[in-house]
Amino acid sequence: MKSILRSLPPALLLPALAAAQEQQLQTVITPAFSPITWERLVDAKNEPENWMMYSGTLDSQRHSLLDQINTENVSELEMKWAYQIPVIDRAETVPLVVDGIMFITEAPSNVTAVDARTGRVYWRYDHELPEDLRICCGRNNRGVAILGETLFMSTLDAHLVAIDARTGNLLWNTEVAHHASGYSKTAAPLIVKDLVVTGIAGGEFGIRGFIDAYDPETGELVWRTHTIPGPGEFGNDTWLGDSWATGGSATWITGSYDAELNQIYWGTGNPGPDWNGDVRLGDNLYSDSVLALNGDTGEIEWYFQFTPHDVHDYDAIQIPILADIEFGGEMRNTMLWANRNGFFYTLDRATGEFLLGDTYASVTWASGLDPNGRPIRVPGMAPTYEGIMVSPPIVGATNWYSPAFNPDTGLFYVTSFDGEQEFFKRDEDYEEGERYTGGGGRYTQPMDAFHSSIRAIDPTTVDIVWEFPIMPRSSAGITTTAGGLLFSGSADGYFFALDAATGEELWNVSLSRRVHAAPMTWSVDGEQFVTIASGNVVFTFGLRN
Amino acid sequence: MSRLSGAFRRRMAGCAGLGLAVLLTPATLAEDAGNLYNTAVDIRMGERYFERQCSRCHGFDATGNDETGAPDLTGRLTRGSTDVAIFNIIRDGIPGTAMLPVAADVPDPEVWQVVAYLDSLRYDPGSVVLAGNAEAGNELFWNGSDCADCHMVNGRGSRNGPDLSRVGENRTPDDLLADMVNPQENVAPRWWRLRITGPDGVSREGYRMNEDSFSLRIMDDEENLWSIPKDSLQSYERIEDSTMPGYAQTLSESELDDLVAYLFSLRREEI
């Protein structure tokens, strides 16, 4: 037997130290990874040491009950480790942590398991991609979902893969849609009971969007709900002619789930072509909407369309935040939504009823919302061949990056942008696999001329309670904690903590490269950490020992 | 082992009949027709260029290098399967990686010669004639042997050995037979064992998933994952043997042939 015995210093063996060493071993080794049941996912809020899904909990509040790091000691944070992603690209990953093991997704469609305490690698899964990808906006991947001992990941070639969480072995690989036709996948799936629910990207390629549910054991499709009704279905007549077939309405971010109402909530993207609405006259259901789907069948139980007949690319690709709040003197099951179109909405999530809405950022395309929440358009704001200045710009007042809701403060937090842009329209024919956007946009001022901020919004009034200005244009998500903290990042490479109640800056660190992801927090052996991706690197911070 | 060698033939690249005339053919025509620069001389010239310019990262035998991260070029290539795709990668590089393009003044024919050299390192698995029967091997793998107690293929099986889903891409039939008859010959570090003893005197043993200067990670016999700083251990022992038994005695020659045929068939379909 070839064997190399490595001995460590004999001092470690002294009996006097035995108790301390035993303690040390218990506290420094990673506990065995344990399977994730659906019950654990439903109760994720009460297991704050783990971050078990993209938005932390099924209600997507991104609020952790961990409070070891708090407003008193956050200034003592120091870097514990950094993990450099070997493929050079920007990281949009929100890692998961399960019992001391962290799962990090990487561009283009890879995943690595590391020891959460040290960032050292257990295994890597490299997904092989074809050369003819059709992707609009970079080689991104935002995260995995986990159920049992299996990870589920979207890939840029529009596949859904299942990976063994212990070894990185590929268990199954299902083609969700044909990549060469313009479909791709970047978002973390959502586990709903015994289903892997997942969306699709490709709204700039004339796809027809959908939300799918797959069997986690086999990868077989269980149901598909199209986000554009087909002929004969309700809403198909909101599309001129055959425009429904190439109408986009992609579903490229992760949704939320209410276990009591058994409803899945998912946002939908822009109608296509993005900036030329002439070929698709009508409201274009269910683009720029939130859909409430039955948690078993995927049937649409209600919908709310934020931007009917959108011509500005105002995707409703935001994370639906579910919160039970006092509204008009009674507790309501609400859904809170700061939309790319510049309006904030409070909806009743059981019925989709519009409760309240108003602007939270610069808006010129609409003058307000009517009593049903439908925007009151300002005439002459549609893109033209010559160009017309409109706010928000194409990237929106916010976009896909995660907002947060803190039940302690009752505030909703969003990364917002007050920009404007000239919108152009172009005549364009659909060609399978080619971009189908019908126009575009142009800034007429440098980015530094615009204003970006973290805004804290009271969802019962849409008042902005405080705002913290940051250099534009941030695409970082937000996480809050029971320690009274709000963590986020900025385009100029800072990671920082604010007082969630007041917006006061408490700590920042320069990580140098753009923060293009959302932070998450977790703990091992009673010690809390916070993790953020910046540039190409995943950083983990903890309190000075 | 040797009894397969006769049956297993490498395709000899080259088509000498095209001769010098093609050296004057514009590269665009070569692209249309595949690689026309593939005579024995071209392959030798390509090898010479490869040794000068490529071997620093990919190794003199083109089998890759863990330290530089340069992949093995002798098996199935992941970035491109056609001559044109390989040509383009050499010509243009791979953005965002250390794979740089060749200098702009290197003429296309020279790049095609490198393509020819790389082609000569590979072979067409479809042309390999094997003694065994892949279907019988499939049956034996899953139902007539203990293979699946440790190995996984396409998501089925176990975690206590290498995933064999694509084993036919980088192992020749000779290699596969050798792996089964004498598994101790080439044990990948991922499948070494580590026996660790904590200060409490309790020992744990598992597969060596990863080891670095200050810590190690194992999967123990219950498939638990552990990550442990070395300075917290009394001792740790590295066992570089394979846990796989040799099958020369327990399986018949024809059974081994069938398993080789099955394992060799475990490849992605050619694109």
Give an account of the 3D structure.
The complex is a heterodimer of chains A (545) and B (271). Chain A is mainly beta. Chain A has a single domain, classed as Quinoprotein alcohol dehydrogenase-like superfamily (Methanol Dehydrogenase, Chain A, 8 Propeller). In chain A, 3% of the residues lie in helices and 38% in strands. Chain A contains two helices and 39 strands. Chain A has a five-stranded mixed sheet with strand order 2-33-34-35-36, with no helix packed on it. Chain A has a four-stranded antiparallel sheet with strand order 3-39-38-37, with no helix packed on it. A four-stranded antiparallel sheet of chain A has the order 4-5-6-7, with no helix packed on it. In chain A, a hairpin with a 4-residue loop joins strand 31 and strand 32. The longest helix of chain A has 11 residues. Chain A is globular. The two termini of chain A are 42 Å apart. Chain B has 271 residues and is of the alpha+beta class. Chain B folds into three domains: 123 residues, Cytochrome Bc1 Complex, Chain D, domain 2, CATH 1.10.760.10; 77 residues, Cytochrome c-like domain (Cytochrome Bc1 Complex, Chain D, domain 2), CATH 1.10.760; 51 residues, SH3 type barrels. Chain B has ten helices and seven strands. Chain B has a five-stranded antiparallel sheet with strand order 6-5-4-3-7, with no helix packed on it. A two-stranded antiparallel sheet of chain B has the order 1-2. In chain B, a hairpin with a 3-residue loop joins strand 4 and strand 5. The radius of gyration of chain B is 23 Å and the shape is flat. At the A-B interface, strand 1, helix 1, strand 7 and strand 11 of A face strand 5, strand 6 and strand 7 of B. Strand 1 of chain A pairs antiparallel with strand 7 of chain B.
